[in-house]
């Protein structure tokens, strides 16, 4: 007898296969089934009943009703094109409408004349047509033809002519009695009487609106008459083609048809989104080109497109945006580099990460910040004198100051003292001392070997971000390379070869090089050294050869004409470096001369480096130690006085006194220094304290300077019994006041003894 079961299967026992699943698989299956039920109609209905649970009680549950509502709201928002919610798009549309309103208002007298002329043509045509209909003028031609035939055939009577005249009279009489004719005449006279009455009672001003309907009708009749004749006519000018009109797709289409041969008359662009307002009085858009026209063809014809749009070539920017027929188009209505932009470093109080984020050094025509990532860059900055190379370096060095992981070493080959403001953060800084540069290159070669050994021991092939805690980045900046590498300079060939070696192997080891020169010819920078400079920035050059010497052969042929940069655009140049396309860019403004902005940034850098233990003198610097070993003098923080002149070790720039600055002025066996040179040196040492103010005349400045300097000297010599006063001596035909070397040395020694 078969045992009964409690299930409906025809035979056998039901097996629960889920019990054979692993616990993880069974839990996953149960969760999937629960989610499926909750997503059904019954599940949704059930979710609205029962006991309310707190959020802490449902943590981990994947199904939340509120999420479905949020997704629904996001879905509705996704249906609205992003361009319609972009405020820049509406700003541009507002400009288009405002321009159209102003343009049409200015041209309204022309439009009134054209409408009046067209209406008069319509009135004349309709009156002529009405007269012809009522007077049956079409019979006139037939009567004339009948007369010619009778005369030609020699008929004595004019029976045909008489018959035609009788028919015309009969038809004309019938037409003039038609209901339409009578109603038209009645309406015309009534309308005329009404207009005259309005004018009589309320004046001509009120009568004009009553004439608008008839003017409109006559305008339409005139337009029909001109179309019948085949004459072209224009009443309202297209505002989009006006010279000052905001950018529209009609403008772009017309310009491309004029400038790009491949863009045919029936070709049109397809806008991706809407045209929107951009920065610096500009507009931008993205559009698709016909399949047979690529963005590269537009770039080749950039000058012609600019001409068709009636703007300067530098006011136009064309880039490929994705595939070859998708174009990013940007156009300015004024010079995008006309106004100089302030550096984003101003107000910066926290450290920068130049390895990842880069140093903000310039802005392009679109107003986008261009950043130089301090990883493996070798940078060459070239251009004629007074073109902005110093401002380019100022942007770079100020950014370097705010990253304590970077050791900045500056070799200044110019006599101006332009870089003295950076002395407090400079691991090494000195001026035109060729032998010291040779020692510095010795130290760099030793540093490269040390880094190679360290990377090998760590199993690394090159410098990486994780090694920045163990290895700081070394960056050597040489301003005016010609001072050290020109052919007539002793040791220039060997120096050039060593710089070339440094530029070829240093990048992967975190040892970087920045060179600036106004003499980019081969005798100043060799082809090998130039080839290793992965980044190039050409300020205004004297000629095309100078441009090609900096940016490489064929640069001018690719449109990078640095020699065409206007003289009044200092800091503007062609950038060509990794991560940055070949483009015009202008240095940010950091105004040190009038506002002391570089000093403010450097002061922040000093505090950041002090907190990180990376201020000159706070850490063991093998490179500077080697220089001290070889010369007995230190150039850390610009040497004693921070004036870019090596001094005695242990005397930091911040601790330098006015006596130290005076003593450092004597060079090349000079035994006296005029006061004019003293004022210039002190102004370079501390411009904010010692430089002449803009509104200050020479006499006032000299008096203030002498009084302040004398007071400080007396303060430092207090208790020594020694006095230091300017002396006079004869120079040429006049007499000069200044300081004698022996007097300054005696004062310095006396001050040292009393301090000790």
Automatic annotation (TrEMBL):
It comes from the Bacteria. The keyword Repeat does not apply. InterPro entries: FtsK_dom, P-loop_NTPase. Residues 1-44 are annotated as: Disordered. Residues 17-37 have a biased composition (Basic and acidic residues). The keyword Lipoprotein does not apply. Coiled coil: none annotated. Residues 358-548 form the FtsK domain. ATP binds at residues 383-390. The chain crosses the membrane at residues 179-198. SUPFAM superfamilies: P-loop containing nucleoside triphosphate hydrolases (SSF52540). One of its GO terms (molecular function) is DNA binding. Keywords: ATP-binding, Membrane, Nucleotide-binding, Transmembrane, Transmembrane helix. PROSITE patterns: FTSK (PS50901). Residues 1-11 have a biased composition (Polar residues). This is FtsK domain-containing protein. The lineage of its organism: Bacteria, Bacillati, Actinomycetota, Actinomycetes, Kitasatosporales.
């Amino acid at each position: 007898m078969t045992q009964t079961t409690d299930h409906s299967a025809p035979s056998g026992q039901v097996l629960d296969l889920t019990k054979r699943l692993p616990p993880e698989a069974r839990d996953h299956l149960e969760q999937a089934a629960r989610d499926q039920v909750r997503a059904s109609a019954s599940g949704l209905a059930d979710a609205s009943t029962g006991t309310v649970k707190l959020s802490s009680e449902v943590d981990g549950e994947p199904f939340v009703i509120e999420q479905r509502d949020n997704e629904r709201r996001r879905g509705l928002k996704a249906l609205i094109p992003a361009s319609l919610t972009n405020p820049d798009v509406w700003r541009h549309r507002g400009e288009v409408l405002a321009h159209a309103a102003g343009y049409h208002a200015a041209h309204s007298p022309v439009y009134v004349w054209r409408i009046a002329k067209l209406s008069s043509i319509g009135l004349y045509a309709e009156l002529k047509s009405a007269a012809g209909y009522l007077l049956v003028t079409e019979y006139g031609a037939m009567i004339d033809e009948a007369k010619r035939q009778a005369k030609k055939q020699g008929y004595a009577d004019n029976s045909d002519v008489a018959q035609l005249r009788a028919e015309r009279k009969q038809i004309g009489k019938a037409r003039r009695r038609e209901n339409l004719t009578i109603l038209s005449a009645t309406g015309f006279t009534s309308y005329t009487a009404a207009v005259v009455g309005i004018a009589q009672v309320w004046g001509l001003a009120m009568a004009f609106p009553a004439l608008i309907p008839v003017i409109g009708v006559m305008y339409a009749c005139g337009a029909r008459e001109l179309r019948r004749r085949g004459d072209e006519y224009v009443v309202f000018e297209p505002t989009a083609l006006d010279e000052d009109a905001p950018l529209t797709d009609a403008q772009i289409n017309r310009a491309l048809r004029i400038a790009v041969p491949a863009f045919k008359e029936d070709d049109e662009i397809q806008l991706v989104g809407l045209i929107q307002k951009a920065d610096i009085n500009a507009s931008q858009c993205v559009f698709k080109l016909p399949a047979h026209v690529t963005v590269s063809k537009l770039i080749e014809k950039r000058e012609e497109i600019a001409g068709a749009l009636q703007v300067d070539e530098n006011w136009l920017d064309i880039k490929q945006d994705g595939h070859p027929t998708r174009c990013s188009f940007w156009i300015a209505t004024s010079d995008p580099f006309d106004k100089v932009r302030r550096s984003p470093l101003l107000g910066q109080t926290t450290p920068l990460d130049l390895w990842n984020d880069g140093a903000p050094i310039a802005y392009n025509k679109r107003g986008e910040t261009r950043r130089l990532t301090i990883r493996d860059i070798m940078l060459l900055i070239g251009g004629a004198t007074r073109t902005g190379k110093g401002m380019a370096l100022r942007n770079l060095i100020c950014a370097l100051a705010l990253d304590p992981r970077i050791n900045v070493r500056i070799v200044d080959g110019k006599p101006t003292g332009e870089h003295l403001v950076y002395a407090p953060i400079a691991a090494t800084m000195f001026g035109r001392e060729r032998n010291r540069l040779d020692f510095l290159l010795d130290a760099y070669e030793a540093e490269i070997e040390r880094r190679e050994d360290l990377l090998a021991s760590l199993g690394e092939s090159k410098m990486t971000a994780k090694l920045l805690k163990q290895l700081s980045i070394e960056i050597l900046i040489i301003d005016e390379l010609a001072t050290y590498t020109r052919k007539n300079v002793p040791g220039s060939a060997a120096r050039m070869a060593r710089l070339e070696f440094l530029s070829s192997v240093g990048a992967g080891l975190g040892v970087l090089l920045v060179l600036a020169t106004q003499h980019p010819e081969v005798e100043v920078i060799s082809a090998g050294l130039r080839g290793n400079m992965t980044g190039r920035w050409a300020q205004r050059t004297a000629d095309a050869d100078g441009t090609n010497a900096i940016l490489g052969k064929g640069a001018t042929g690719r449109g990078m004409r640095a020699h065409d940069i206007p003289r009044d655009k200092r800091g503007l140049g062609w950038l060509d470096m990794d991560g940055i396309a070949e483009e015009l860019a202008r240095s940010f403004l950091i105004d040190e001369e009038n506002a002391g902005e570089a000093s403010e940034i450097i002061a922040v850098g000093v505090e950041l480096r002090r907190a990180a233990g990376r201020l000159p003198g706070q850490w063991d610097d093998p490179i500077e130690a080697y220089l001290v070993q070889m010369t007995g003098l230190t150039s850390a923080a610009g040497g004693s006085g921070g004036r870019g002149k090596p001094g005695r070790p242990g005397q930091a720039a911040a601790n330098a006194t006015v006596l130290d600055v005076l003593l450092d002025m004597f060079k090349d066996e000079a035994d006296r220094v005029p006061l004019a040179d003293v004022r210039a040196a002190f102004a370079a040492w501390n411009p904010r304290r010692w430089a002449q103010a803009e509104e200050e005349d020479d006499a006032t400045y000299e008096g203030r300077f002498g009084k302040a300097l004398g007071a400080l000297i007396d303060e430092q010599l207090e208790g020594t019994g020694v006095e230091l006063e300017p002396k006079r001596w004869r120079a040429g035909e006049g007499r000069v006041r200044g300081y004698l070397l022996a007097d300054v040395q005696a004062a310095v020694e006396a001050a040292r003894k009393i301090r000790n």
